[in-house]
Each structure stands twice: as structure tokens, then as C-alpha cells.
Amino acid sequence: MSLVKMQKIRLLVHKSAVIDVLDAVQRVGAVEFTNVTHKHLTRNKPTEFELNYVSARLDLAVEFLSRYAQEKTGIAAMLEGTQERVDEERIACIVKEFRATEIADEAQSLQKELNDIIKKKKELAKERELLLPWRRVSFAIGSNLDTVYTKTVFVIRTGHTQTSDGKRSAHYALARACGKVHVPCHIVSVDKERAIVTWEKSFTDRMHDIFKAEGYESVQFEKNYGIPAEEIKRIDHAIKESDKAIKNLEVKARKLARHLPELKIVSDYTLWQKERHVLYVRAHRTNDVFVYEGWCPRDRVRALVKAVAQTSSLANVEKVTPHKDETPPVEIANDRLVQPFEMVTRLYGLPSHVDVDPTPYLAGFFLIFFGFCLTDFGYGVVLMLLTGFALWRYNVQKSTAIMLKLLFLGGLSSALAGLLFGGYFGVDMSMMPAFLQRLQQFDPIKDPLPVFYLALALGVAQVLFGLIVAIISKARRGNLVSGLLDNGPWLFFFVALGLFLAHKFGVIALPYASTIVWGAIASLVLTQGRTEKNIFMKLFKGVTSLYDIVAYFSDVLSYSRLLALGLATSALAFAVNMIAGMIAGDDPSVFSLIAAGIVLVIGHVFNLVVNTLGAFIHSARLQFVEFFGKFLTGTGRVFTPFRRTQRYTIFTE
Questions:
Q1: Torsions phi, psi of 287, nearest 5?
Q2: Closest Cα to residue 622, out of 563, 545, 571?
Q3: Any residues with CB less than 8 A from the CB of 287 and at least 6 apart, and which?
Q4: Which of 54, 76, 511, 513 could form an SS bridge with 500, CB 3.0 to 4.6 Å?
Q5: Looking at residue 80, what is its pLDDT?
Q6: 143-220 adopts what CATH topology?
Q7: Backbone angles phi, psi at 165, to 5 degrees
């Protein structure tokens, strides 16, 4: 239940056994390789190799055929993923017998042919769109219609200078403009925006000025067309033929997609080969020996040594003492009960290698806060049933399973909190059985102040616990005295303050309560500036450290959000029930009962989803800001071992 301890190792391999040894290391998946610096070692220059091309082609084939494969959809796909479950035996069999190159070639050919037809169809659609407005023209367009003395152009009005009272012809303003400057022209109107204009060539420059003034532009056809109506028929026929060809190719693609599972496996296998080869060609080496260095979890070193020894006698794994300035990567490992809460820690970022793993310390608080935010027995039970069923029914991916387990525990916490807070889908407690009424200890709607005080008490508990964890963290680093002097006085102060307030309000009788508080303040002044060299600076920093009291109280007040979220859940559930009751009415009919039922289902589902999300986010936020800041010094570099990248495959146990 802590950070995984890392061991730096060095792997020495004879050049004849490098690929086989790297395969063994990749199978173990427990080494993160680092850069090797030694003056007597050389490094191969990166080079392109065949596996790059093969891997890329297989990936493209997988991507293309995935569009046509009959894969899992809906909840099953979301929970289980679309990856193939494999073991070593299946991989070896498929790699040996499956004709992956041939399938990839067929997929590439189909994709190229399909893309060509789709591109052609798009071009035809553009031609049709261009010709459609001119479909009433009864002669061929796109060809040169000029004569010795005349010029003819197709134009479209794009401006807004055209004025018409509705009784004039569509291009009356253009004709009038030509008449004003005595330019003889003939206008054939196609529609309100388009026309065919013919004029005497000697007036060409003047016509261009008229077009510009009246907001017209000439239309340029990229190629010669026949009569537009006939051309449109031809294009429509060509588009239909393209659609048929596309359907035929898609049928072939769906048939070929039956090989997708095997293709995915070979694609991943090829990627593993490629990754090994990258390490091979970029290795540091002497003439005969390849040298690798990296980090390995201490509890996995023995497995690594065994795997390498079984692969080749020409390789050796040795432990190495890291340099002082080297920072190991970070990984965390917890038991099964705490493991789901690692999701919260990973969202924040793994702690640095000198910190403690916060997961065991946050687990209990996160669970309590989650239940405090949802505070409904019914919602908690529903959440447990949904997540429990998903875990039981589906072969859930590891990352998804961790999230579902966390939500299951959150549902359990919410159900228990619901018993104490009287939350049962927003139903008034006066309508509930007597034994459930006796279990209720808080009523956040009618009397929110006790709930508010409870939220603040939980905040004080976690803030103080954070100070204790800070002492533990520094003790593990050999700085116990520093931890006690940094955080001990603050613990003393808050305990003293709590005792003083308890004495003040008559909860306990404690003589000299105020003296104890002043003693705690004095301890802060004396210890918080101890690192300064000048005695006056020691005193000044000690006094100014008292301002941190404001920050601590601000942290505690942040926990009031627990009350707000609990109220929101209860109030919204009550509102849903009230609206449904209004719809049903005093004398309900079948229709009103159905409508009320729909409102109840949709309303409570919405409330469950939104407030579950809120419970998770705000419970996590309290850990990140108010708790982690007390003892975490930063985030670490995540351990990324050299292993088989599982994009399309998942290894079964």
C-alpha cells in the first residue's frame, strides 16, 4: 500500500541475442528504458526499416475494415471495448497461419477503388449543382458562342443593385443600363439571377463596366457541356451507377471484414516487433555487446532476470546504483479494497518519488464525502445494482472495472448516508415506516444547520489528518524532526482551539483553556521561522505564519459544499415527486398516471446521473485542493515500461 520501489538495472546482451532478449523483456513488461551515457559506447543512427511500412499498412487496413465489421455496440462496446481477447497460443497460431499481407492488400485495393468512386461521385454532384440552374437552356453550354461581330456570356447576379417593382422583367435594370449608354445587347433570362447576354464586340469594355455596376459576374464552365437538361440526366445516371458500385464494394468490404479480428492481432504483433526493432537500432553498444539501462519495480526484478536467463545465456541483468540527480519513475500499488480509489490519485497525478501514496489516506474520506453528497438510500442502491450488474454481466476492461468498483462503493456509502439523512427517492419521511424514521438522524431540508456543522467537522478531521500524513511523509524521508516542527504546532493549535471552543460553549470544563491556545500560538511563532538565519527574521516569519490560520479556515469552509450537494439531491428528488403528483392529480386517469410515471423515471434518472457526477467531482476536488496540498510536494513521472502495446488486443489471464 505505497509507492512501488524502483530499482535501476543494466541489461547487457550479445548482438546475436538482442532481438530475442528484447522480446522477453517486452513480455515481462516491467522495465522503463532510459538513456545510456558512457564515453566508450557508440549509438546506432536511427534508420527506416521495413516494419514501419508493414505496420502502417496493417493499421490502415484495420481502420478501413472496422467501418464494415459487425462489432459490439452500445453498452457492451462501452464496457468491454472492441479489443480482441488473446493468449500466447492464439497469437502464435494466427501469426503463423493467417494471410495478413494478402488481406491488407485486398483492403487497400478496395479502399482505393471506393475512394476513387466516391471522389468521382462528388465531382458529378458538383457538375449537377452547376448545371441545374441552367436546365431550361435549350442549347449546348460551355462552348464558345462568340461570332465575328458578337460576344455571348453566361452571367449571374450576385449584387443587390437590381431594382424591380415586380412587374418588370427579371433583368430589366441590366437592359435599362445598356440602353442608357446605347449598347445594343440581347438578354435571354434564365431565372431571376441568371441570364445569357449577347452584345456587339466593340462594346465589350463598356459591358464589363455595366456588369460591375449592376452586380453581375460571368459564369465560367470548366468544360463543354451539351444541352443542360440532357447533361443532368447523364449525370444522374452516372451517380446511380456510382452508388451501385459503392454498394458492391461495401459488400466486398463487409465480407473481408470477417478477418478483422485476426488482422487486429497481427497488427499489434507487428507493432511489438517494430517497437523492439526501434530499441535495437537505437541502442548504445560496443562492437559486440548492446547496453541498456532502465528502471524496474523491485518486486519484478527477479521475474525479469528469470525471463532473460531462460531466453539466452548471452545476456545479463545487473542492479545499478543510480546517480544522485536521477529521478526514478513513479507507480503505485494498493490492495483490492483500496485499488479503486487509485483512479482519484491518477486524475490528480501520481505523487513524486519522495512523497507517500495518498490513495490509502484519501479512500475513507472520499467514500464518506461521496455518500454525503448523494445522501439517498434509493439512489445508492440503484447505483450499486447498475455497477454490480455491469461487473458481473460483462467482461469489463480493467480501467473501466476500477471506475465501476469505485461507483459501487460510492453507491454503498450513499445508501448508508441515505438511512441517516432520510433520503428515499425524495419521499417525505412521514410516509415511511416507523423503523426507517427512527434511523434518520439528520434532516437537511428542515434543519440544515446540524448537517452544516457535520460537514465542517469532517473538513477539520481531514485537514488535521493531512497534517499527520505530512509528518509521516517527512519521517519516511528521514526528516521526522522537521515534520514535527513544521506540522506539529499546527496540530497543537487546532486541537487547543477545539478544546477552547468546547469549553466556551459548555461542552467540557477545561481550566486554562485560553492559556493552552496562547501556548499553541507561541509554538507556531517559535517554530515556523526556524529556518531563517537572522533571529529577527525568525521572529518575523513566525508571527506572519499566523496568517495561515485564514487559509486553514478557508479550507475547512470549502467542505460546506457537502451540505449544498446533499441539499441539491434531496430538493431535486422532492421536486420531481411533486411535479409528478401534480400531473397525476387528485383523480388520476390512465393517461395522467403514465405521464406522471414518465416524469418520475426521467426526473430521478437525471437527478441520479447529475448528482453522482457532482458527488465524484466535488469529493475529488476536496482531496486535490484541501487534502493533497498538506503533504504532497509535487507530481512524479509516471512509470511507462517497455511492454506490448495493446491497441486492438487484450491478454486474458
A1: -65, -40
A2: 563
A3: none
A4: 513
A5: 76
A6: Alpha-Beta Plaits (3.30.70)
A7: -95, 10
